[in-house]
């Protein structure tokens, strides 16, 4: 080897979002002039700048290059020791490549974002919002969830009440709000509440929401019933007070003639049954037969020409119902994707690909249906044009459906934002749902599944990055 190298220092520390510099010193120990090219390799290479990239040294001379590390303040900058290396290739002897190695310690940071989905819920006896907690830091997040409100007007059932979230992942917490007093009559009332994400040694992160409690019966119905009862009592009292007395003159004449008006004595006689009330029954007329467009008399243009019938759309529910009929005891999931500029793809099932790969065409929405899984629910994570941290956001309420019903995530409107990711689950006891997605400028991501037995009732697929979008998806249950 005709090259001596030294890293100064061999180990360095840097904060995410900051930078640090390490100097690489080298000496040409050979007997010829040589030119050296430098290239950063390893996981830290995307965040490493080598200056200069080419250095020419005479025999016995020493030179140096600077390695500048600038990891971003994102979950990708893994906290702790991270090895790095620099490949040095001599121009005269390319086979004598040298790769000095060093160590860079990235300091941990914590960043948490929480959002209620939806922020406002309505109900008479309960409300069921969901709290989305995103770990935007580079260390594992452990937190507890609690609820409170002014006046202690609500009770809270939170599941799970404790969460552990890996860097760059999200968790959904189910919350059931129950009012302590029921509004039997009257208008709705707004009850503000707070869900707090509490971490050890840190001030809690509060998320504000509103529960709109509706009355059991509307006020107008109570007024109507009161007026109706008052009128009914008044009518009965008037009827009793002013009932006309009817007498029979014919009976008096018969008594004067000595003719008895009493019926013959019969111990077994019983009064006749009252007549059954009758009402006129009106049979509704049969509906008139529908004529095809352009047919029938009356001078329509193109008389006799029938209107062409369009075949029904084959949605995810149509596909999964067909599978359920063929395999009644099995679990199946069918789905299709709405591709920008192309529309809905064909419905596919059980691990097949929906969408496009490598065509740079983002997905706008997903249509999903399951069988044998006790229903499914989901929410869309989409591009946020007003983002200040390079992240998207949840912009649609959580949607849930039963087996065999179409569930839609995202929007197919012309100006709808691109789909960056999604959260999906199947009902408790219905098994687990697994997903893998293809992200723009990346390969297929690893398969991820929820684990209801371990308390993970939802799985997030996709990316939080505002500049990346989904191109294709695969699901299994």
Automatic annotation (TrEMBL):
The keyword Transport does not apply. It comes from Streptomyces apricus. This is Hydrolase. Residues 304-313 have a biased composition (Basic and acidic residues). Keywords: Hydrolase, Membrane, Transmembrane, Transmembrane helix. GO terms for molecular function: hydrolase activity. Residues 257-316 are annotated as: Disordered. Residues 294-303 have a biased composition (Gly residues). InterPro entries: ChW. Signal peptide: none annotated. The chain crosses the membrane at residues 220-242. Residues 264-277 have a biased composition (Pro residues).
